[in-house]
């Protein structure tokens, strides 16, 4: 455990006047009384000198600071260094030497490590040494409960292949990096930086623990930075989202009381500018703030999100989708596997219209499906076969694929994304569903499968509203003929279509992944995946898998590509609702819903469009659309929610997230309980507290409270609730 630096480091102009003391008193060093007194005199003399120097700098730089405020330079919290440790190495600039380094647990290289283009990089020499064992670094004398940024520095000095080194990192007992692979993220001899906001323990400590998975855990350096969020009286009103470079048009989620306009996608009251992925633009919303002093439904009028400008692309952060105007796209998917095979064009039109009216903006469908439970005589559509020769993937029938085109374009006309499966494989071993057995049979070959893929790639390369989905309830065995032929289909598509994104829907692996698979966990196809689709069918807790994907390196967007179905034994509305909220609050960029065979196989779709699960799916989507959902960062280390969250291994765990601007905090309570919230983690001086009922969409005000100290908050009644806390100065509407 290390004592804090005697003088904190100030950024900007004060950087030239750094006086970071390296006379830190370490418990393992023995000093005589005389040298200790000399050290104390030196420390106090240096403190006085630093105070005088900093006062002079502050006076001479006041005009510069005012310019920085006007340009938005203080839009994000400032940080100052409390600790800097060169893990496994000697002192480097303001980074202190590692007192616990030894020949057995540390090493170094003379090879240069690149820090070019790496934000917040340490001096290059820090990355040339490393500590490479399981160990814990504990930093003390911090303010109990205060929030600090823990900045972790890494570089891979030894391995030169993906998967050779993997390790986990925990901060104050919460895992923040899982199966972390430095080489997979940036390669060899390249700096890598990861930041985490962490609350100091009640003892005023932050402990960083490194745990080996394969090849040895390692660290290059650690910084512990205090966070300040100074008031900015010269800046304009806070805005809705942060925007990326270039202008884009966004819409207001609901507007504040009455009509209001705001910059950024979320459109809060007042004008201003924002920077980030959402795009600078104009947001407009209307609606009342809710009737009554205590309970209201908020601005419940229809909220227009504007037309989606396809094709979608990954955001600059790679954590979510945006359209061509950089407007974030939150996936709300209806799993509709058999839509092309089962319904007439007229019925498909009615179905898609109904979905769109209920807030669904995505449908997952398969171009070809073979399941005897579907109507329409699958694999045919209305008697029309997808192939001119039975099961021969190289003999495509134009009439069938013209119908498939029509369905995909119907979705596009309604602003809907299509997650498109080239060929639904189906459960291995059950020949009555899926194409797994026909694809691997003597009717086909790798060459024929490649031809089918090339046909699809050429046909849909300009279709702007699709994302490709590999698999379909099946994980082909490694090295099997089915895997070879599926790969041929995908390779064929990619040969003619390099523009569209890919994800996957793999089957159930009881041994390796009992809680459901991620798209990237099939090693044969991992490199093809742009999006980490999580097949979250598991009835228990799924947020840990969401977090695992969120924390993985390199960064990939994750979303629940498929979920428990409502008509299944464990597919209760409570279960489905919990998994959707916990997904978004654990870093996912969307979720999905399916009524069951009524929708996926269209057995009784007309009568089940307004099921409880469908209604509640619309409610979670509306709630998150009313806030900057894309800016939410999971509260993994309980910086904001400090007590009452429960056991993360259980399905009644409270998942929570806060926007990076600290202006909004959202928590989902599967069951009612008292929560303790660190109000200092919310920006501004006052915060609006809301309790949202996820089963009815009604909102109860919890009042406006100061953002100081800790606050105990309890929902209005038993059952499930969503807690929303907003910086009152943002003027955000009632969440609904």
Task: Outline the structure in words.
The chain has about 725 residues and is of the alpha+beta class. The protein is built from 13 helices and 33 strands. The strands form nine sheets. A seven-stranded antiparallel β-sheet has the order 13-31-30-33-28-27-25, covered by helices on one side. Strands 21-20-19-18-17-24 form a six-stranded parallel β-sheet. Helix 5 packs parallel to helix 6, helix 8 runs parallel beside helix 9 and helix 11 runs parallel beside helix 13. The longest helix is centred in the N-terminal third of the chain and has 28 residues. The N terminus is likely disordered.
The total of beta strands comes to 33
Give the helix level as a range of percent: 10-25%
Overall mean confidence score, pLDDT: 80
End-to-end distance: 47 Å
- Characterize the main sheet: 7 strands, antiparallel
Report low-confidence residues grouped into runs of 5 or more.
1-77, 229-305
Number of helices: 13
Strand content: 15-25%
- Rg is 28 Å
Shape: globular
Structural class: alpha+beta
Spatial order of strands in the largest sheet: 13-31-30-33-28-27-25
Descriptive key words:
736 residues, 20% helix, globular
In short:
It contains 13 helices and 33 strands.
């Amino acid at each position: 455990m290390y004592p804090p630096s005697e003088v904190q480091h100030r950024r900007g102009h004060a950087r030239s006047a750094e006086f970071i003391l390296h006379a830190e008193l370490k418990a393992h060093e023995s000093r005589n009384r005389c040298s200790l007194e000399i050290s104390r005199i030196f420390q106090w003399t240096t403190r006085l000198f630093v105070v005088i120097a900093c006062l002079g700098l502050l006076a001479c730089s006041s005009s510069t600071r005012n310019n920085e405020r006007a340009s938005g330079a203080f839009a994000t919290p400032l940080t100052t260094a409390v600790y800097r440790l060169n893990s496994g190495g000697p002192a480097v600039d303001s980074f202190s030497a590692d007192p616990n380094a030894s020949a057995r647990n540390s090493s170094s290289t003379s090879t240069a490590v690149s820090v070019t283009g790496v934000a917040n990089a340490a001096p290059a020499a820090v990355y040339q040494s490393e500590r490479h064992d399981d160990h814990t670094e504990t930093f003390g004398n911090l303010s109990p409960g205060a929030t600090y940024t823990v900045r972790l520095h890494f570089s891979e000095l030894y391995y030169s292949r993906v998967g050779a080194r993997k390790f986990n990192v925990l901060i104050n007992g919460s895992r923040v990096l899982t199966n972390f692979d430095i080489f997979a993220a940036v390669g060899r001899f390249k700096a890598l930086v990861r930041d985490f906001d962490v609350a100091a323990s009640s003892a005023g400590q932050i402990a960083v623990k490194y745990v080996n998975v394969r090849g040895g855990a390692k660290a290059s350096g650690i910084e512990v930075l205090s966070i300040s969020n100074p008031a900015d009286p010269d800046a304009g009103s806070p805005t809705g989202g942060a925007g990326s470079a270039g202008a884009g048009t966004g819409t207001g989620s609901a507007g504040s009381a009455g009509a209001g306009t705001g910059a950024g996608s979320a459109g809060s009251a007042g004008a201003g500018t924002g920077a980030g992925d959402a795009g600078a633009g104009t947001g407009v919303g209307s609606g009342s703030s809710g009737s009554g002093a205590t309970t209201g439904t908020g601005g419940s009028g229809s909220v227009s999100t504007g037309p989606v400008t396809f094709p979608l692309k990954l955001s600059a952060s790679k954590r979510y989708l945006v359209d061509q105007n950089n407007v974030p796209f939150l996936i709300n998917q209806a799993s509709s596997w058999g839509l092309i095979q089962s319904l007439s064009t007229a019925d498909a039109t009615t179905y898609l219209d109904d979905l769109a009216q209920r807030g669904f903006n995505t449908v997952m469908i398969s171009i070809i499906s073979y399941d005897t439970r579907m109507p329409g005589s699958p694999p045919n559509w209305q008697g029309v076969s997808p192939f001119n020769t039975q099961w021969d993937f190289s003999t495509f029938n134009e009439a069938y694929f013209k119908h498939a085109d029509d369905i995909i374009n119907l979705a596009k006309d309604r602003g809907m994304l299509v997650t498109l499966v080239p060929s639904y494989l189906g459960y291995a071993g059950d020949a009555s569903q899926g194409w797994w057995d026909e694809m691997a049979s003597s009717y086909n070959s790798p060459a024929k499968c490649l031809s089918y893929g090339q046909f699809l790639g050429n046909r849909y390369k300009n279709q702007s509203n699709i994302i490709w989905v590999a698999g379909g309830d099946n994980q082909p065995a490694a090295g099997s003929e089915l895997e070879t032929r599926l790969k041929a289909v995908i390779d064929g598509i990619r040969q003619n279509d390099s523009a569209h994104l890919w994800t996957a829907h793999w089957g159930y692996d009881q041994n390796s992944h009992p809680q459901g698979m991620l798209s990237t966990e099939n090693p044969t196809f991992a490199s093809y995946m742009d999006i980490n689709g999580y097949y979250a069918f598991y009835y228990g807790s799924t947020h840990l898998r969401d977090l695992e994907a969120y924390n993985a390196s390199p960064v990939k967007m994750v979303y629940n590509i498929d979920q428990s179905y409502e008509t299944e034994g464990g597919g209760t509305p409570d279960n489905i609702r919990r998994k959707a909220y916990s997904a978004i609050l654990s870093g996912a960029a969307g979720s999905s819903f399916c009524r069951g065979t009524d929708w996926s196989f269209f057995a009784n779709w007309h009568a089940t469009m307004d099921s409880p699960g469908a209604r509640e799916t619309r409610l979670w989507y509306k709630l998150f659309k009313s806030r900057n959902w894309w800016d939410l960062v999971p509260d993994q280390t309980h910086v904001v929610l400090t007590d009452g969250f429960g056991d993360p291994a259980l399905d009644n765990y409270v998942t929570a997230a806060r926007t990076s601007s600290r202006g909004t905090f959202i928590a989902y309570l599967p069951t009612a309980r008292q929560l303790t919230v660190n109000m200092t983690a919310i920006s501004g001086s006052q915060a609006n507290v809301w309790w949202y009922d996820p089963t009815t969409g009604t909102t109860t005000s919890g009042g406006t409270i100061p953002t100081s100290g800790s606050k105990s908050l309890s929902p209005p009644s038993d059952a499930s609730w969503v807690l929303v806390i907003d910086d009152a100065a943002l003027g955000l509407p009632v969440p609904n």
